[in-house]
Every structure is written in structure tokens, then in C-alpha cells.
RNA sequence: GCCCCCGUAGCUCAACUGGACAGAGCAUCUGCCUUCUAAGCAGAGGGUAGCAGGUUCGAGUCCUGCCGGGGGUACCA
């Protein structure tokens, strides 16, 4: 793991200072706690207010050990640490100050700026890359919509989060396989088939077939409320499908084709990629083997006519492998999928980006796997237990109300995107009528706004999908990031140089500029943080901060109240500032890429 | 009933997993475009952190109990 050289120097100096100021205690505890450099490094924090310093060490926890009051400790250590540099003839990269119970470190700006900007400009979009994922196979399952149902905004969240995680982990050199696992099997198809036979025919599915399928699905559920036969019929129809009845199968194929056409359109509009698309039905012929394996492991039981595995956790209901009529369930296929993926990939980790409503379900499935591997006494390397993770995310509501496919209460993603793109088109006409690529740009912005709406909150939080907010392009939004990017590109077009000259970074001496450089230096850490949390959110909020910091530089006013422009008559100064612009543009573009958003050069 | 999650500004959310005076955006109000994109920037107002206890040098963050909301609770996925 790459270490920050400023923090390393801080740790070395303060550890030495602690040894010097508290020699008696050092003798008794030895090279540990505050006397140990690594310990100090690990305990560094970032101050809430960047003005206080780049990083800080709170010393409260050491008061007991050192038998001193925290402010006294800090004020003793700070000068001793600075003295350490002088004593050992080390050029300090930082200055250390005591502030109450904190030791604050400020970095030498010239060094930070030179390091950071040169690194960004030479590495380009590889800035922030890391090799922590080398030789690690990582599976990410996301999107996974249900065939024969429209792609609603409910599916958007899994799609956007998963796709972003795929890119983030790739950046860290993981060998990522992005998987789409569409729901193309199950009792729902029995319902669809019954509904189609009762109320539909070939002509029904001529125009807007996806909406027609939804209508059939909804009608089934409303009528099933006072017609018990319907559900029974549906179960029969699904069994027919499982038994391979040709007519039923071809109808199912037809539904699938209709849905896939719509899904692919959505994916290409959003720019979503997968490495593998395998539907549930792929596992039809692999379920028996799983059931046999579980039986052999002595885990199965028959309960109320159904084949089940009872979990160890008393709070979980038994896991149903087969219904009392012999038909399989979702989990049966998912267990087969889990085993199949483990055997095929021997993954380091496998992530399932699925809503939090399914968390008990995942506990069941993973519980069954764990019990099985335990019963089979597999070696630790042969077990997938602990490597499979449910990456859950909060409920998506629409205008404060729950959505329900069964009741037809849902919002089509297609409609949402259309609205957003239309609005973007309108704004372009208004704000930049000379823009040539209107259609393409409007699409980037509209889609960006919709996608960002799913990333602007930590993934565990519920999201309320509110039109006014999604269609607002100001403030903490995708279009704001894109706009800032376009603005940066515009500057680079005007000041057309190759960026290969010697730059005096000390000319970037304004507070606003310092803040931008500090943020640029934070990018690599932000990416690893996102990976650690399995959440793109840190990247999203980071980009907002970066864009805001740059916009403040861009519109900073001098003492006379005039805008202090990036490009001025002062050549040296302009070069330095353009280097900053180029670095911000690079990171902003890469960050947007990680989120799955396009970065327009003009808008 | 039982099991998870959540309650922070009018609204939507942050706060580096226990640290510094709780921060942003939206909305409202006030400024700023005679050449670098105003989808922007500066500023103002707006807070008893659901309530009550507890642990701690230190609590929005941890523990307990209430109150309120959401989700799940074997033959859906």
C-alpha cells in the first residue's frame, strides 16, 4: 500500500519527539503506541476544516499513558518534532502546530503542488490507479432486471452502483467480471402465460409490447384477488414451461426477445457495460445437482410438502429448494449460480448489488452454502463462504410513494430519461445556442442527471425519486460536474499549449488554489475508500468538492473586485494556472468515468 | 408478534466509523456577466441532532428504554 510521504515524515518526527519528551514512559512501554511511527501513522485524522491542517493527530487518548493533560502534550510535542528536523538535517515537508489536544500538520505547499500536479499530468487518467487488486478476480452482479417487466427506476440503482463499482475496482487492478443476471424464469412467467392466453393474442404485442406485457401482468394480479383459480393455473403453466412444453417455451422466448430489446436500448443509452449476461434459466439443468449435493450433505428436509434446508439462525425461515408441487424457486437457481460461479472463477470476492429488501434472502442463501461447505469439510481455500457479499442499497420510492410492479405503479426509466434529455436540450438552446452537437450533448447531460441522482447518497440510504430534484441541473448534480468539466475544456482550448514546459508552482499562491491542489492529492485515497465501502458515493461527493473548489478559483475576485482570470498577460502565472486547470480536468473526467457519466467538452 | 434499517435546517442529504465551533445543495432573500461558458460565484437567514437516560476526557456517532417511519417475515423474485 502506497504511503503518503508527508504523513510518514510527521510520524517519524512525532514518534521521536514523544521518545524525547517522555523518556521514562518510553523505557517502560518500548517501541509501541505513540513511540511507534506506524502507530502514529495509523491514528492520523483529517481535520474537519482544511484550514487547520492537512492532517492531525489527536492526543487525548494518550493522556492516561503519558500522565499529562492533552493540550500540554500537544504543546510539548509540536516544537520537539520541529526540532527533530533541524537536529537531523531533514528538510521538513510539513509544519506541526499544537491546537488544543491536537497536533496539526500543514504541508509545504510548493512541494505538495509540484508532486501532485506533476503526477496528475504525467499519469493522466491513470492517476489514482493502484495494484491492490492484482491477481484478484472480482465478480460484480448488477442490474438483473426481470424479463417481461419494464425497466423501472427501481432497477436503475443496482445498475448504476454496480456499473460504477466495476470501473472503480478495475482501476485498482482487480480482474473484474461485471455480470447481468436477468430474471427470465420463475412463477411470474406462469402468470404471464396465463394472462396472455386469457386476455391477449399476437396483435396485443404489436405496439409498445413492454407496456402491453405490463398491462397483462397487472391485470393478472387484480383479477387474481378474487379468482383463486388463476394462481393455480399460473403454477401449472410454469410447470409446463419447466417441463419444456414447446408452445409454452416459444411464448416465453417471445417475451424474452421483447424485453431484451428494451433492456439493451436502456443499457446503450446509459452507457452500461457487462462482461457476462447469464439469465436465471441458464441454471435450469444445474439445480438437480445442487439439490443432490445438499441431500448428500444431510441438510435437506421435507416440510409441509416442500423441500427445505433449515438454517442455524432461528430468526430465519427455512430456505425452500422446491415447492410442494415440485417446482423450483429463485433461490434454487441462485444457489446453482453461486456454485457455478465459484467453480468457474474461484473468485477473490463476489458482489451482489441487490436491494436491502433481499437481505434475509441473502442470509438464507449464503447460510445454506456455509452449512454445505462445513458439512463437506472443505478446506478453507475450497470454500466461498466469506467471499460472497450482498452489497445492499436502500429502497427507491417515487415522489414519496412505494412503487409496485404488480399494481402497475411504477415509473419507466425510458420516460425519465426522455424528460431529462428534453430539458437538457431546452437548456442548451437557452444557454449555448451556438453549440453544434446538441443532440449528443443533451443526451449526455440528461442521462448524467438521472444517473447521478442514484449516486448522490450513500447506498444504504433510501432514495426518494423526486422529479423536481432529478430535473434540477444546479448545485450538487451530474450536470454541475459536467458543466465544470466543459468549462475547463474551454480554457484548455483557448490556451492551447502542450503542457510540457517548466512551471513555477509557487505562483499558485491563493488559498483557493491551495484547496484545489489538496483535493487533487486526495483523489487516489478517495477511490480506494469507495472500493473499501463498496460504494461509489465517496467519489461522487469528492467530485462535487473538487468542482466547487475549482469554480471558486475561476471566479475569485481580486482586491479591486475584478475577476482574477486564469489566463492573463502574466505568462508565467498563466502557465501555472493552466497546469492546474489541466490537472483538474483530468481528474474530473476520470472521476465522472468511474461513476459512469460522460464528460462533455462543451455544453 | 418477531427480526433488520432509518429519524440531523422548510426539503434532500454530509460529517473520514468516538474528536475541534454539526456542514453542503435545493428552496427564500441580496449582490456579481464591456473579452477565460452565470448549468457559475459571493453573502444572509434557517439547528433543543425524535424523546429520556447511560458509558466516556469527549457522543449525531456506542449502550438501554420509549415514540415515529420503512423493509422483511417458507411455497414471489
The global form is globular
CATH fold-level topology of the domain at 137-286 and 327-398: Rossmann fold
Q: What is the average per-residue confidence, as pLDDT, rounded to a whole number?
A: 92
Coarse structural class: alpha/beta
Number of helices: 21
Q: End-to-end span in angstroms? A: 39 Å
Strand order of the largest sheet: 6-5-4-10-11
The strand count comes to 13
Low-confidence stretches: none
CATH superfamily grouping of the domain at 137-286 and 327-398: HUPs
CATH class of the domain at 137-286 and 327-398: Alpha Beta
CATH-derived architecture of the domain at 137-286 and 327-398: 3-Layer(aba) Sandwich
Can you give the helix content as a percent range?
40-55%
* β-sheet strand percentage: 5-15%
Largest sheet: 5 strands, parallel
Description:
The chain has helices at residues 5-21, 23-29, 37-42, 63-66, 70-87, 109-123, 153-171, 187-199, 209-224, 228-242, 246-270, 287-296, 330-345, 359-375, 413-431, 438-453, 467-470, 478-494, 511-533, 537-554, 571-595, and strands spanning 55-58, 94-99, 102-107, 137-141, 175-180, 276-277, 300-303, 306-309, 319-322, 349-355, 388-393, 396-398, 463-465. The protein has 603 residues and is of the alpha/beta class. Among the domains are: 5-107, 2-Layer Sandwich (Gyrase A, domain 2), CATH 3.30.1360.70; 137-286 and 327-398, Rossmann fold (3-Layer(aba) Sandwich), CATH 3.40.50.620. It binds one RNA strand of 77 nucleotides through helix 8, strand 9, helix 13, helix 14 and helix 15.
Amino acid at each position: 500500500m502506497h504511503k503518503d510521504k508527508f504523513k510518514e515524515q510527521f510520524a517519524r518526527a512525532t514518534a521521536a519527539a514523544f521518545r524525547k519528551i517522555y523518556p521514562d514512559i518510553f523505557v517502560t512501554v518500548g517501541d509501541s503506541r505513540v513511540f511507534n511511527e506506524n502507530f502514529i501513522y495509523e491514528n492520523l485524522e483529517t481535520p474537519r476544516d482544511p484550514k487547520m491542517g492537512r492532517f492531525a493527530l489527536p492526543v487525548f487518548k494518550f493522556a492516561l499513558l503519558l500522565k499529562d493533560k492533552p493540550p500540554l502534550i500537544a504543546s510539548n510535542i509540536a516544537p520537539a518534532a520541529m526540532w527533530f528536523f533541524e537536529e537531523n538535517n531533514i528538510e521538513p515537508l510539513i509544519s506541526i502546530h499544537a491546537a488544543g489536544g491536537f497536533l496539526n500538520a500543514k504541508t509545504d505547499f510548493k512541494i505538495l503542488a509540484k508532486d501532485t500536479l506533476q503526477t496528475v499530468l504525467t499519469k493522466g487518467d491513470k492517476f489514482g490507479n493502484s495494484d491492490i487488486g492484482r491477481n484478484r478476480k472480482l465478480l460484480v452482479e448488477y442490474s438483473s432486471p426481470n424479463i417481461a417487466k419494464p425497466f423501472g427506476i427501481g432497477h436503475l440503482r443496482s445498475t448504476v452502483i454496480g456499473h460504477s463499482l466495476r470501473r472503480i475496482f478495475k482501476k485498482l487492478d482487480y480482474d473484474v467480471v461485471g455480470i447481468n443476471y436477468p430474471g427470465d424464469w420463475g412463477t411470474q412467467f406462469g402468470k404471464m402465460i396465463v394472462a396472455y392466453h386469457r386476455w391477449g393474442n399476437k396483435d396485443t404485442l404489436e405496439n409498445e409490447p413492454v407496456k402491453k406485457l405490463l398491462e397483462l401482468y397487472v391485470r393478472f394480479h387484480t383479477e387474481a384477488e378474487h379468482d383463486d383459480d388463476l394462481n393455480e393455473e399460473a403454477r401449472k403453466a410454469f410447470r409446463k414451461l419447466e417441463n419444456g412444453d414447446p408452445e409454452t417455451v416459444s411464448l416465453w422466448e417471445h417475451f424474452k426477445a421483447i424485453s431484451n430489446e428494451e433492456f439493451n436500448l436502456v443499457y446503450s443509452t446509459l452507457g452500461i457495460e457487462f462482461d457476462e449476461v447469464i439469465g436465471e434459466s441458464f441454471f435450469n439443468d444445474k439445480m438437480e445437482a445442487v439439490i443432490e449435493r445438499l441431500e448428500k450433505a444431510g441438510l435437506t428436509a421435507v416440510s409441509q410438502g416442500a423441500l427445505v434446508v433449515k438454517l442455524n439462525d432461528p430468526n430465519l425461515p427455512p430456505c425452500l429448494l422446491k415447492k410442494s408441487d415440485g417446482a423450483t424457486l429463485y433461490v434454487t437457481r441462485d444457489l446453482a449460480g453461486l456454485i457455478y460461479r465459484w467453480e468457474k472463477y474461484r473468485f477473490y470476492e463476489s458482489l451482489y448489488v441487490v436491494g436491502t429488501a433481499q437481505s434475509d434472502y441473502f442470509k438464507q442463501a449464503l447460510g445454506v452454502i456455509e452449512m454445505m461447505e462445513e458439512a463437506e469439510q472443505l478446506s478453507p481455500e475450497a470454500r466461498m463462504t466469506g467471499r460472497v457479499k450482498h452489497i445492499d442499497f436502500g429502497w427507491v420510492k417515487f415522489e414519496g410513494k412505494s412503487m409496485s410492479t404488480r399494481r402497475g405503479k411504477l415509473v419507466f426509466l425510458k420516460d425519465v430519461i426522455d424528460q431529462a434529455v428534453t430539458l437538457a436540450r431546452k437548456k442548451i438552446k437557452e444557454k449555448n445556442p451556438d453549440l453544434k452537437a446538441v443532440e449528443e450533448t443533451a443526451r449526455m447531460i440528461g442521462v448524467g442527471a438521472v444517473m447521478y441522482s442514484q449516486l448522490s447518497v450513500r447506498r444504504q440510504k433510501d432514495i426518494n425519486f423526486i422529479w423536481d430534484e432529478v430535473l434540477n441541473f444546479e448545485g450538487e448534480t451530474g450536470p454541475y460536474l459536467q458543466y465544470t468539466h466543459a468549462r475547463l475544456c474551454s480554457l484548455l482550448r483557448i490556451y492551447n499549449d502542450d503542457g510540457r514546459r517548466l512551471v513555477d508552482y509557487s505562483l499558485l499562491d491563493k488559498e483557493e488554489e491551495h484547496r484545489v491542489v489538496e483535493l487533487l492529492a486526495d483523489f487516489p485515497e478517495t477511490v480506494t475508500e469507495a472500493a473499501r465501502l463498496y460504494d461509489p458515493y465517496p467519489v461522487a461527493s469528492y467530485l462535487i468538492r473538487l468542482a466547487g473548489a475549482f469554480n471558486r478559483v475561476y471566479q475569485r475576485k481580486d482586491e479591486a473586485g475584478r475577476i482574477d482570470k486564469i489566463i492573463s498577460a502574466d505568462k508565467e502565472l498563466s502557465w501555472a494556472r493552466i497546469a492546474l486547470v489541466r490537472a483538474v480536468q483530468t481528474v474530473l473526467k476520470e472521476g465522472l468515468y468511474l461513476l459512469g457519466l460522460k464528460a462533455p467538452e462543451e455544453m
